[in-house]
Amino acid sequence: MRINLLTRYLYLTAIALLTHVAFSGCSDDDKNGLNINTGFVQFKLYKSGAPENMVTKSASEIDYLYDAKKMEITLKYNGTNISQTLNLHAFNATNAEFGIRSDKLELLAGNYTIIGYVLYNGIDEKILSGMVSENNSFDIVTGGLEVKGFRVEVAERGMVKFQLEKDFSNFGKAKSEAGPSYLFKNVKKADITVQNLFSSEKIVFQNIPMKYSSMVEGNGSSNLTSVSKSDSILYLPAGQYKVISYNIYDSSNALLEANSKISSDKILIEDNILTLASVPVTMYESAEHIKDYFALKKIWESLDGENWSYHGIGYTPGINWDFNKDIDMWGNQPGVSVNAQGRVISLSIGDFAPKGDIPAELGQLTELKILSLGNHNDEVHGNQIPQINGTEEERLLNRMNYAELYLKTDLKATFSEPLQFAFKEAGIEVGAAEPLCAIKKRQSRDVPSGVLSNGITSIPKEIGNLKKLNTLYIANGLITTLPETMSELESLTDFEIYNCPRMTKYPYAINKIPGLALLNMAHNPQLSAQELFNGLDDFARNGASNKSVQILYLSFNNLEEMPASFSNLAKIGLMDLTHNKIQKMHPLGKNVSPVQLLLDNNQISELPVDENGVFCIMDDIETISVGNNKLKSLPNIFDANSIYTIASVNFSFNEIESIDGEADGTYKGIRAETVVLAGNRLKKFPSIIFNVGSLISQFNLSGNQIEEFEKESFYGSNLNMLEVLDLNYNKLSELPKNLDATTVPYLYGIDVSYNRFAEFPYGPLNVSRLTVMAIRYQRTENGDRCLRTWPTGLYTCASLRGFYIGGNDLRKITDKISYMIYMFDISDNPNITIDLSSVCYYIKAGSYKLIYSKGQDIRGCDALDL
User: Fold this and answer.
1) What is the pLDDT of residue 10?
2) CA–CA dist 557, 502 (Å, integer)
């Protein structure tokens, strides 16, 4: 009969009291209570197979000692049986296999015999009972602790960790069974089935977490290998086993491989012994990812791989590919990317200085999406290729990389230095005045036309197998032609054939590629003007991509005429024809609506229009740049009444003397944020541009020969939107009287430096938003200084922050100088006398920039080095 804890305690106390009275009687020590001599016992239960010299005769057997949570122990003391229930403890299931401990039990001093025990699980169900017939007695010493162990019948069980090991035994056979493709490092979970060799019982372990690790093999080998181990400890009944099957999964629980044909070694499981069990994972030579890796090695060998030395950015300089590792790890090379199945999806080798013919094995890489055999930024930015699964926005950014490097400029950077300060004060960021590659040339290396960075000589016809290839770069090598099978690249959207000096014939295979969005044929001046014209004309007229191409880079070539067939390129967004020798243009017509049209640095003398008066549709255009050409007049191809505002229009450094349509009254004007007509031959201010209602925010007319504003001609319905006006380096001696707050109320920057002003033009100072004004270096036709007038009351211009009047002939200035004008240029005025005491504090504090010349008569500030 089971006795509850309180009943047992009262029963044991009563026995103790009786015993105490019988043996010790009464004494003076008992005056304040009973004096009971007690000690403690703690029981430790071992598995029956544990190394203890005790014998247990049990009525049954349990699977795990950890299942026992309570024990009822029966003891004999002075001929009386007493029972007590104790809790059992172990840190975890693993530790329990080596023994569990009970709570401590307080007993009277004396000798006890273990009669028997009953074990219970966590819900008080009886799971095992037994008797202890040998070595079953123990003594309790007053104040002491006795630890008493005995064994119980528990199934002998050992611990096991599984280790997945690659098995290459099938390699080298005449014909290998096709196997699945996946990366060994992507194995994150496993189901493993083992079979007992005696009973044939099968035991399945599911969802075992696996952890990948690589190491160098021992025995003096330097070969890199890898395994995947289970993190957790598992249990098996003692015996001999073998692994008969496994399923392995990736991190998303997708099945990588199921294998029920395993020839594993025997696994000996011993009680309480941890065993590392190897699970052979078959590596198949015919698996597609393994075939990819053999192809990589063949490519490496064929292109002088032993002498490869990386010279780009992104990897360690001088690095080479390494095949001294397991075959399934050969895909782990610099410049190579693989997918979850281990298939090669990106290959970039131009920066390793490869040499020779690419072998036919390239055609094995059927999952390849990106192939770079050199590209336009090999020496500028290094081995930078697009993201394999990038968004459409990221792909567009990559397509614009060439424009960023070789073409992009900011027209606002062509304005004068004072007006740069005006932009800054207005919170407008100004970019570079020249392309990034021009800056890089002064700081780093570049790949100019004809200079090689690799020695690749040919591409095999098997490239046609690469049906998933979407990006192909060929550059800076010895390629002479392209295989006709290029037409089979059905997914190719981005193609670059850049700086290939041995390719003297236009590669017509390009024109057969369907679906191109980007074609970059820049830096190929070895192609004659006629050869390039014929090829491009065929591309635009008959090419498979003429309806899909969006970006066309053709800069730094010898093209002399833009093909009329370019009017077929209906989806063109960016057309780059800069740095050619183009003399003849044709209208693009009403079917072409570019976003960026770049025609700089040619010999263009006319932008013709079609029968409808259209050069191209301007609805989407953001940038049109025709700088450094031979235009004699400003083309009448824009319209001030358009609902669309062009970001930038550049006709600088032509030979423009007039405006088309001005004489017959057909000029339509322009609507643009920034217009640059600098460096032309205009002799009068082109008022007609504003008179017809043009809307221009920033207008640069510097470096012309403008002598005058025609009287009563400076007007226009949108003239009030003018914000910045650059009239540097002209021949003006006065501004129109109405160039003031009434006509240009939003003007915040004006520069009339390097002209012929003898009197200061006060009109702009009346504009309440004016931030910067410059009137430096005024000279007569003979080169004499002509400006001596100081603008009295300048300090009243509350918005003015920059004032530049250096290089003139100022004399004594009695005006107060405002500390609000903290960019102040009075340099190269040899006869000046000025008191700066009102701003000296700010000069000392570093918040006021004074531009002056040594020797000038500047008073009131001892902080200046005069």
Assistant:
1) 40
2) 14
pLDDT greater than 60 at residue 27: no
- Phi first, then psi, for residue 796 (nearest 5°) are -80, -10
Residue with tokens 């410059």: 774
- Residue 42 near residue 147, CB atoms below 8 Å: yes
Q: Which pair of structure tokens corresponds to residue 337? A: 């990317």
Q: How far apart are CA 535 and CA 524, in angstroms?
A: 13
Rounded-to-integer distance, Cα 287 and Cα 727, Å: 71
Predicted TM-score of the model (pTM): 0.81
pLDDT, tens only, 538-560? 999 999 999 999 999 999 999 99
| CA-CA-CA-CA torsion sign (798, 800, 804, 808) | negative
Residue whose pair of structure tokens reads 């292109």 in the numeric block: 303
Q: Where are the beta strands (DSSP E) in 168-317?
A: 189-196, 202-216, 224-230, 234-237, 239-249, 255-259, 267-269, 274-282
How many Å apart are CA 296 and CA 292, to the nearest integer? 6
pLDDT-derived band at 59, boundaries 50, 70, 90: very low
Q: 460 and 437 in contact (C-beta within 8 Å)? A: no
Tell which residue, 372, 563, 384, 567, has the closest CA to residue 469.
372
Rounded Cα distance between 531 and 524, Å, is: 11
Length of the chain: 866
Nearest CA to 163 out of 105, 222, 210, 196 is that of: 210
Beta strand 145-152 with 105-108 is unpaired
Interatomic CA distance for residues 466 and 484, integer angstroms: 14
Q: Which pLDDT belongs to residue 712?
A: 75
**465: three-class secondary structure by DSSP:** helix
Q: Where are the beta strands (DSSP E) in 255-396?
A: 255-259, 267-269, 274-282, 336-338, 344-348, 355-357, 370-373
How many Å apart are CA 796 and CA 357, to the nearest integer? 75
Measure the CA–CA gap between 178 and 183, rounded to whole angstroms: 16
Please classify residue 100 by burial: count the beta carbons closer than 10 Å to its beta carbon, then call 0-12 exposed, 13-18 middle and 19+ buried.
Answer: buried
Phi and psi for 510 in degrees, rounded to 5?
A: -60, -40
Q: What is the DSSP letter of 595?
A: S
Specify the range with the lowest mean pLDDT, choosing from 282-291, 294-303, 605-614, 803-812: 282-291
Which segments of 345-474 does DSSP mark as H helices, in order? 392-399, 401-402, 417-425, 436-443
Q: Can you give the pLDDT at residue 48? A: 75
Q: How many CA atoms lie within 13 A of 370 on its CB side?
A: 23
| Torsion 352-353-355-358 (CA) sign | positive
**Distance between CA atoms of residues 419 and 701, nearest Å:** 13
How far is 761 from 784, CA to CA, in rounded Å?
19
Q: What is the DSSP string of 498-521?
A: E--TT--S--GGGGG-TT-SEEE-
